[in-house]
Amino acid sequence: MAKTMNLKHTGASGVDEYIANAPKQLQVRLREIRATIHKAAPGATERTDYFQMPGYSYEGYDYDGMFVWFSFKKSHIRLHLRPPVIQDHKEELAGCFTTKAIVSFSSHKRISLTLVKKLVKASLKVMKDKSK
Q1: Parallel, antiparallel, or unpaired for β 66-73 and 76-81?
Q2: Reported confidence tier of residue 2, pLDDT bands at 50, 70, 90
Q3: Per residue, what are the HEC states of the chain?
Q4: Which residue, 70, 11, 85, 8, is CA-closest to 37?
């Protein structure tokens, strides 16, 4: 039976709950993505109140300061970023399903955490540059 998620939290507890509700085989990778985002964006506020998935923000910017989210869907782990980050990294993302703002990594393949860190930093830069 599927678990129901009611995630109207800010802070680590909401993200912990989100990961705990993910399929067991995805939980380690979701924790790795989370840790990588923390390294790429130290001091960012971790929250699940925006789109009911783990997201990260800094105060004082548009879109409530949100610049990256992560989620899971079936056998994919998804990274949600500000446009045009994905378009700017198309070559590095070859082999991944992408939309304008989402990269879907297959849960059956290794996810490059170096690439994730690079994408998070790029999304943060897009947000900061937009406010200038």
Answers
A1: antiparallel
A2: very low
A3: CCCCCCCCCECHHHHHHHHHCCCHHHHHHHHHHHHHHHHHCCCCEEECCCCCCCEEECCCCCHHHEEEEEEEECCEEEEEECCCHHHHCCCCCCCCEECCCEEEEECCCCCCHHHHHHHHHHHHHHHHHHCC
A4: 70
Which residues on adjacent β-strands are paired with residue 70? Answer: 79
The per-residue pLDDT for 7 is 40
Q: What is the pLDDT of residues 109-126, one digit of tens each?
A: 999 999 999 999 999 999
Say yes or no: domain 12-130 is CATH 3.90.1150.200. yes
β-partners of residue 102 are: 80
